[in-house]
Design a protein that fits this description.
The protein is an alpha+beta fold. The protein has helices at about 5-25, 70-75, 100-110, 115-120, and strands at about 30-35, 40-45, 50, 55-60, 80-85, 85-95, 130-135.
Length: about 140
């Protein structure tokens, strides 16, 4: 990604995050991770679904061939902060596997059909991440 494209993407995310905080979200949460290499805190607005008390996010990156940076951050450091519906809490992330992965991905794709298209665009198996509130 070029620097100019990267800056536009970052500006878009910052504006979206400010709007989410002002309006207490909706179908999008703000996930704050710690950079795998940099150690810096990174915020990302992500669509989500629920499974029980847990939140579920999909590392689709729009169906691109590689996983998003936030996914690599969570694999390196599964401790994260979640902001959703006006609430902020610490969570631990884990990558869903097997039947759980299939079930959770299908549930999100039913609600947000773009996710089915993202999987068709790529040969990688798009990761599903479950975020569990700490405490």
């Amino acid at each position: 990604m070029s620097t100019n494209t990267s800056n536009r993407y970052q500006s878009f995310n910052e504006a979206l995050i400010a709007d989410l905080r002002a309006n207490q979200g909706g179908a999008v949460l703000i996930l704050t991770t710690t950079g795998a290499r940099s150690g810096r805190r990174r915020e990302n607005p992500l669509a989500y679904t629920r499974t029980g008390d847990d939140y579920v996010v999909i590392a689709s990156k729009g169906g691109s061939p590689e996983n998003p940076s936030w996914y690599h951050n969570l694999v390196a450091n599964p401790e994260a902060t979640v902001e959703v519906l006006g609430e902020r809490f610490e969570a631990t992330a884990r990558v869903a596997t097997g039947e759980e992965h299939e079930r959770l991905y299908a549930a999100q794709a039913r609600l947000m059909p773009g996710f089915a298209e993202y999987q068709r665009r790529t040969t990688r198996k798009i990761p599903v991440i479950v975020l569990r509130r700490k405490g």
